[in-house]
Design goal:
Number of helices: 3
CATH superfamily: YjbQ-like
Shape: elongated
Number of domains: 1
Helix content: 25-40%
Distance between the termini: 18 Å
Largest sheet: 5 strands, antiparallel
Bound molecules: zinc ion
CATH topology: Jelly Rolls
CATH class: Mainly Beta
Order of helices and strands: EEHEEHHEEEE
Radius of gyration: 15 Å
Amino acid sequence: MEITIKTEQRCQLIDITSQVESVIAKSKIKDCLCLVFVPHSTAAIILTENEPGLKNDWLKVLKKLVEDEEFEHNRIDDNADSHILSGLLGQGKVIPIEGGQLVRGTWQEIFLVELDGPRTRRVVIKLIKG
Ligand code: ZN
């Protein structure tokens, strides 16, 4: 199963929890593992709180990690920072499902992290029976 997300900025956090939950609800599988994966090397998946200040904090920290670097890849593509942050954050997460519900903490929302937008991103969702 797959969802498509259109991003609007170069770097952006987008809460995709409800879209993932509706895929799970349609599947009728009650107990399994849920892989949420982006088939992209300049985007990532994280779990964090959906709070506007925190979303900005994430973007500040990510920017700081890669600023002032002279990246070799930028000679051909000008997006080395995006690739590196994507790899560091991870391009997928595995979340348990019990009783048809994602097992997650109160402040754990699923986010697509756009790192080289705006683009159209695919998010692949696989339910893996345990
Ligand atoms: Zn590149």
